[in-house]
Each structure stands twice: as C-alpha cells, then as structure tokens.
C-alpha cells in the first residue's frame, strides 16, 4: 500500500535564502531513492520560513528504509537550517472509502 508523508519544516528566518539550494540537493537524493514515487515542495504563501515536503512512497517499508538511511549514512545538514525538529505525518490511502 502506498504511503504519503508530510514533512513539516520551520526554517530559521535567517536560513530562508540558503534553504532552496540545500533542499534541491537533498531532494535529488530522496527522489532517486528506491520506492520514492515523488516529492513536492509546498511553500507557505504567508510565511517564507514554513515549508512542507509532500512525499509519496511505494510502501511503508520503503519509507522506513529511507528514514533509516537518512538517520545514518544519508544524514544531511538540513537540521542546521531548522528552527525546531520537523514534524512528520504519515498517511495511507483509503481505497475503500
């Protein structure tokens, strides 16, 4: 079953200029990761420091493998741009509703 993940990021105000370049690099790796079906970047129209990544994964397992990789060998410096830890919400598609 596919999985949709919302990764809610609140950037430090002083990091809004540097974030797009870092996110481009990070998301190129994410999009190439096995099981990633795509990632959209949603920018808050009223708050330039608020970014949501809308990720689609082939399975819960593919997402879990990716998160494990990001916590280890695939770690990035994104945390240095964030005002606080990102909020992750995971959703499965309801096919019977």
Description of the structure:
With 97 residues, this protein is of the alpha+beta class. The protein has a single domain, classed as Alpha-Beta Plaits (2-Layer Sandwich), CATH 3.30.70. It has two helices and four strands. A hairpin with a 6-residue loop joins strand 2 and strand 3.
List the helices and strands and how they pair.
Blueprint: E1 3-10, H1 19-32, E2 36-43, E3 50-57, H2 60-71, E4 87-92
Antiparallel strand pairs: 1-3, 1-4, 2-3
- In DSSP terms (H or I, runs of 4 or more residues), the helix count works out at 2
The value of Rg in angstroms is 14 Å
Q: So what's the overall shape?
A: globular
Secondary-structure-derived class? alpha+beta
CATH fold-level name: Alpha-Beta Plaits
Helix/strand order: EHEEHE
* Average of pLDDT: 96
Helix content: 25-40%
Main beta sheet: strand number and arrangement?
4 strands, antiparallel
Looking at the overall shape, the CATH architecture is: 2-Layer Sandwich
Strand content: 25-35%
Q: Tell me how many strands there are.
A: 4
Query: Can you identify the CATH class?
Result: Alpha Beta
Q: What is the CA-CA span between the terminal residues?
A: 15 Å
GO molecular function: monooxygenase activity
Protein name: Antibiotic biosynthesis monooxygenase
Keywords: Monooxygenase, Oxidoreductase
InterPro entries: ABM_dom, Dimeric_a/b-barrel
